[in-house]
Design brief:
The protein is of the alpha/beta class. The protein is 43% helix and 18% strand. The protein is globular. The relative contact order is 0.12.
Length: 394
C-alpha cells in the first residue's frame, strides 16, 4: 500500500495489538499503585495497612482487573480486527469458479444470461476528436438501458475498452452523463474523452434508478425487488455483465483487453464485475473499497446507499474474499485518507489480505492500493496514477 503523503504513518490508525494494550494497562496500573502508596505517606506502614484493612485491600482487584481483561479477553477481540488470519481464499482448496457461482447466486433472481441482446444507435456525435454514440440496449428484458459508447475518431482495428461505472452521490439524474460530461468531484476531462485520448474505447450504462432510468425512488425500487426475490445491486451487476457480453460481440473491440473502473458506487461495481468475470483483465476502483466487517464494527452502515446491501452476503464473503477472485489480474485501488466510506482500518485489512493472495499467485506487482490525503473525490494525482496503471496493464 502506498500512502500519498509525506511522513504519514499508517499504523497510527490501527488498533493496538493485544501485547501493546496489555503493556499500556500494566503501566497505568503501576502508576495508580505508586500514587496510592504516596498518598498514604508511609509506604512501609501502609503496606501492612493495605494487607490488613479490607477496605484498602479491596482496591487491589480494581487495579488488576484491567490487567486480567487485557491478558485474557481483549487480545482475542483486538486480534480479530488487527491480525491477518489464514482465510479460506488462501488455501489450496479454494475453488474460484465455485466461489464465483456462489457469489452470483447471492444476487437474487436474475434474468437469463443467455437471452438475445439488441442494440439501437440513438445518436452519434463528435466531441474533441472522440466519437460518442448514444445507445439503447435491450439486455434484461424488463426495461431498456440507455448507454454511451465512445472511441477515438480515427481509430483503426480492434481497440482496448473500459467498462465505466458511474457513481451515486444521491444525484439520480446524472447517471451515465458523468462519463461524457464529468462531475465536480472528478477531474477533467471526463473519462469518455480522457480514455479516448489514450486510444481506449469506453462504455457506460445508466444504472437502475439513474439518468434516463430515474424517476422512481431508489428505496421503492429496492423494496419492490426484494418482494420479487430480486436484489437491486444484483440487477445492476447483471446489466453490466450483459454490457460486457455486448462489448465482446463488437468487431471493433479487442476482447482480450478489457478493463472496468468507476468511482464510489462505480468503484464497488468495478470490483464486483472483475471478481465475477475473468474477461475483465484490469480493475480500477476509486473511493469505495470498503471492508464490510469494519464498516459494521464502526457503526457506519448508514453511509452507503441502500443499493449496497446484498442479503446474506457477509455470511459467505468478506470484501477481501470477493476481491481475491480478481487475482492474479491487475487491480488498482485508490482511496481517500479522510473518506468515511472506506475506513482506514478496513483498507489495511484488505491490503494485507490481497498482498498475500497476489504473492501466492506470483503476481505481487498486479495489486496496488494508494491512499491520498483527501476525502471522497478524485484528485489530479489520482487521475495520473489511474492513466499510468491502464497504460501498463491494459
Amino acid at each position: 500500500m502506498v500512502v500519498k503523503r509525506e511522513k504519514t504513518n499508517f499504523r497510527k490508525y490501527n488498533f493496538l495489538s493485544g501485547k501493546e494494550f496489555t503493556f499500556k494497562v500494566i503501566r497505568i496500573d503501576l502508576y495508580c499503585t505508586i500514587i496510592f502508596w504516596y498518598e498514604n505517606k508511609s509506604p512501609a506502614l501502609n503496606t501492612m495497612k493495605l494487607l490488613m484493612n479490607f477496605r484498602s485491600f479491596s482496591f487491589i482487584p480494581l487495579f488488576f482487573l484491567p490487567v486480567f481483561i487485557s491478558l485474557c479477553i481483549l487480545p482475542e477481540a483486538v486480534a480479530q480486527n488487527n491480525q491477518l488470519k489464514m482465510k479460506e481464499y488462501m488455501k489450496e482448496t479454494w475453488n474460484k469458479e465455485a466461489q464465483r457461482k456462489q457469489l452470483y447466486a447471492l444476487l437474487g433472481r436474475l434474468p437469463d444470461r443467455e437471452r438475445t441482446i439488441s442494440v439501437e444507435i440513438v445518436s452519434t456525435e463528435e466531441k474533441d476528436g472522440v466519437i460518442i454514440q448514444k445507445l439503447l440496449l435491450d439486455i434484461n428484458g424488463l426495461e431498456l438501458v440507455p448507454a454511451y459508447f465512445s472511441k477515438p475518431k480515427n481509430a483503426r482495428g480492434k481497440l482496448p475498452v473500459v467498462l465505466f461505472n458511474h457513481s451515486h452521490f444521491g444525484q439520480y439524474e446524472v447517471g451515465k452523463n458523468e462519463f461524457v460530461l464529468g462531475r465536480k468531484e472528478m477531474q477533467t476531462p471526463p473519462y469518455a474523452i480522457a480514455l479516448a485520448k489514450e486510444g481506449y474505447a469506453g462504455l457506460c450504462l445508466d444504472s437502475w434508478g439513474f439518468g434516463e432510468r430515474s424517476g422512481r425512488a431508489e428505496l421503492d425500487i429496492f423494496k419492490e425487488m426484494i418482494w420479487k426475490g430480486q436484489v437491486l445491486f444484483g440487477m445492476m451487476v447483471y446489466d453490466n455483465l450483459r454490457a460486457l457480453d455486448y462489448l465482446v460481440s463488437r468487431e471493433d473491440i479487442d476482447k482480450d483487453r478489457i478493463a472496468t473502473m468507476g468511482m464510489s458506487m462505480g468503484s464497488t461495481m468495478a470490483w464486483w464485475l472483475a471478481a465475477l468475470d475473468e474477461r475483465i483483465k484490469v480493475c480500477v476502483d476509486l473511493n469505495c473499497l470498503t471492508d464490510f466487517h469494519t464498516l459494521m464494527e464502526q457503526g457506519d452502515l448508514r453511509l452507503h446507499g441502500i443499493y449496497y446491501y446484498v442479503p446474506d452476503l457477509v455470511t459467505h464473503f468478506s470484501t477481501s474474499a470477493i476481491n481475491s477472485l480478481i487475482a492474479p489480474r491487475a487491480h488498482l485501488g485508490l482511496a481517500g485518507e479522510f473518506d468515511p466510506l472506506t475506513p482506514l482500518e478496513g483498507l489495511e485489512i484488505i491490503d494485507k489480505n490481497l498482498k498475500a493472495v497476489y504473492a501466492k499467485e506470483g503476481a505481487s506487482e498486479a495489486w496496488k492500493l494508494n491512499i491520498y490525503p483527501v476525502a471522497h473525490e478524485e484528485t489530479a494525482e489520482m487521475r495520473t496514477d489511474i492513466m499510468q496503471f491502464l497504460r501498463k496493464w491494459l
